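Q: Here's a chain of 442 amino acids. Please give me its 3D structure as tokens.
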Amino acid sequence: MAAIGVVKAGGEGEAFIEALTHEAAGVAHHDGKAVFIDGALPGERVRFRYDGRKRHYDKGHVTEVLEASVDRVEPPCAHFGVCGGCRLQHLAASAQLRAKEQAVRDTLWHVGQVSAQTWAPPLIGPTLGYRRKARLGVRVVPKKGGVLVGFRERNHSFIAPLASCLTLEARIGGRLTALRELITGLSVAPRLPQIEYAGGDDRAALVFRHLEPLTAADGDAIRTFGAREHLDVYSQAAGPESITPLCSVQPLFYTLPAFDVTLQFAPHDFVQVNKDVNRAMVSQALEWLDLDGSERILDLFCGLGNFTLPLARRARSVVGIEGSPALVAQAERNAVANGLTHARFAAADLDAAGVAAMIGAENYDAVLLDPPRTGALEAVRVLGAQGVPRLLYVSCNPATLARDAQVLVRTHGYRLVRAGVLDMFPHTHHIESMALFVRGTA
């Protein structure tokens, strides 16, 4: 249905919302031109204000909901609409999952001309208090009350002034006001651009990035804060190699109880942000691969061993390859600590044209890939040509999953036998999914 009452850019209009974009904007049409409306949900009639016009589409934001969707709910966070960390708190959790699954289905077909034979139920966990890794921005803005700590505002580069965050773990999400008060008293406050938070199973840490040296008083204040709030504290003067503890610290770790695996990690290391969904994701991956203990497995983009070590519990041998030498070193330490001598690791650039030499000539029975948003195009080209029997792909970007799926299915004769979404980031537009490819016909 067309938008009605449309006026010039900067004015207002009314629209019926037909769909939701992957970035969580409502989609309407007027005179054959799309209008993307922030804050609108499918099935709604809304009044909106134009934020800008392009040649082929317009943008706007909701000013009034005239007819609400049955899936519209009251956002739990008082900062919703200003903070850009979450875009879907106004949509019921079940509807969020339906929208994300549909986004993956649509992208697989429209980008890759591929469809899954079956869809698994979504993997879910807590929708609040789930985030154990975050990078918080810091700015000193006198016009907004001084120090601001939080995520960027929606559609802006400014820092949203957060008093708390419901998606962060309570160990930090409820302490943003105290953190702001700490930074206000530091001499380096104007030169402290960010704080990184990392939560393990039994302790958590903050890394203070500073562009000028901390004074002795600054260090004392941060240590006192850490002791009071039961947080390990670190300073970072330059790159990750400069991260230094400011107090007596213990290694961070998380466990995968289903596989009797414990993984240590540094505060700046990549780990999956959602503990509960990560555990379910690893279990589902091994279930889908259906190992009998005789297999040789290749784990690409293996990080610090999140999939590799559980795979080593169930397979004959596992080789993990990762681009970061520091993560490979941590993965090797984790393997030793868990007594897994048949897990081997190597550092290599898996986006390079020479990926075939990195993967090697060994005949693997199955491959697991967990690439970044850029996907794994070079790797799937090589693996597809080698004819690996089973390939399980964990994706954080439907577009690159669809592109890579097209190579596997259309060029190398694989079937996409199963797919499903993982609710790793509830209330956000970020979509994680899993796809199992099997070589040949059924």
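Q: Can you summarize the key feature?
A: The chain is about 25% helix and 30% strand.
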